[in-house]
Amino acid sequence: MRHVKIDLGNQNIKHTENNARVYSTVHGIVRLNDTQIGDYSDALSGGVEALSPKDFIRVYDSVNSRHYKLYHVGDAALRQHGALLARQERGAGRYTADYAVPLILHVLQQYPDADGDYSLVLMFPPSNAMYVKDYVQAVKRSWKIGDGDSTRIINIKHVEVFMEGLGSIVNAIQGRLAPIKNDQHYLAIDIGSFTTDLVMSTAKGVFIPGMAHSLENYGINSVKERLQNSVRRQWKEAFKDASVLDDDEYLESILTNKTVNLRGRKTEDASAIVDDVCSDLINAVLNGVNQKFSRHVARIGGILLTGGGSTLMHTVLKERLDFSTIYLADERKSLFKANVRGAHYYYESLVRTGMVAV
Ligand SMILES: Nc1ncnc2c1ncn2[C@@H]1O[C@H](COP(=O)(O)OP(=O)(O)OP(=O)(O)O)[C@@H](O)[C@H]1O
Ligand SMILES: [Mg+2]
Predict the structure, then answer these.
(1) Which of 48, 87, 220, 355 maximizes the CB count within 10 A of its CB?
(2) pTM (two decimals)
(3) Which domain holds residue 196?
(4) What is the pLDDT of residue 78?
């Protein structure tokens, strides 16, 4: 039996078998129609270089069937069909059998010797808790899948579910990244690509029922876009041909230092721009904390920043959040992995206590 934990993020699917290595797969998928299937089969067998068999997945109707649906997946799907055509469903649309299952199977297909029995942990954001049952039912069975090259059988025998932000709290507790006091609560602020979630747990990482809040239209991508536009507008000449603004580390340095380093020129102050581009997201977080968690504020032992967005925004967030106990849920560069790492620890605890037979 193999054990894979999967965080199906809006932009990147984070997944791991043993926690030591967490992989990130671009979230992109296009179902191809019959004509396209023919075209792609011809192109693939003709060895067209731009197409790799690994960027396709065939999902057969059943283990004994010869009929399949063909999907173009991952980064290649986004490049080939454009971000609009390659559905990158946000929110509830992701949790339908037709959409999420081929993506999950694509993830499993990447593990070497992928045939055989699987036990999965599937993560879900708090806003989609109600769809999780359908999704689990859809995925739990035997599948025949193939890429452009070969077919294999995958039996999904067991599925656990775990909430995304909660994973980060568990990761921080396990890794002793925040001081843990038993009578205190912990609040994760998970800034993803397109969404931000707030989730509260006990010091043992147990979800406090009802204590989750999703900001579905606030994520790091819009902050990045506004930052890129503002900087380009302010320093037109310096950034005319520069691709440096596409680099996360460069953007992180602007957001952290509130300055812009122009090549061959002095460092310029960017504090007004930084405050402006971050304000919508930060205000939404502050409102969310006030509305949903105000009764618990006195009991918050720590705020845990997580999600890829926190890698870029942790300094500005710390500045604006009126708390003295703010921690990162993993190493700064690994914050996007924190949720799935927590799912790994959660699964291990189920195995240890005999709740899951391995
Ligand atoms: N080290 C990093 N690795 C990957 N992404 C990073 C990193 N640092 C910052 N980011 C940024 O974080 C964003 C992705 O974050 P994350 O993986 O948490 O989002 P997601 O889970 O796919 O989205 P959502 O939570 O909205 O579903 C990207 O915009 C990326 O630019
Ligand atoms: Mg996420």
Answers:
(1) 220
(2) 0.94
(3) 178-328
(4) 86
